[in-house]
Design brief:
Structural class: mainly alpha
Largest sheet: none
Strand content: under 5%
Number of helices: 3
Oligomer: single chain
Helix content: 55-70%
Number of strands: 0
Order of helices and strands: HHH
Shape: rod-shaped
């Protein structure tokens, strides 16, 4: 077996392997983009719940006495 036969066999192997991408096409890219948007929406929903549950002021001028001694310590679900 010469090196030419080896490289031709390697090239044929790569061609057969990468036919998979012809079948998949752009569906994988679209699925990743949609999954990213769904994950971002989920993350923002959780962040909204956490922001609503916090009792920390947004403005620095309101920093004095911002804590609540008897604040509700309920767990988010």
């Amino acid at each position: 077996m010469s090196s030419t036969d080896f490289f031709y066999a390697l090239g044929d192997l790569f061609q057969k392997f990468f036919l998979f991408y012809d079948v998949v096409g752009n569906y994988f890219n679209n699925a990743v983009i949609v999954l990213g948007f769904v994950g971002f929406a989920y993350w923002m929903n959780i962040q909204r719940k956490l922001n609503a549950a916090s009792n920390v002021p947004v403005e620095i001028k309101d920093n004095e006495g911002w804590y609540k001694e008897n604040a509700d310590k309920k767990q988010l679900k």
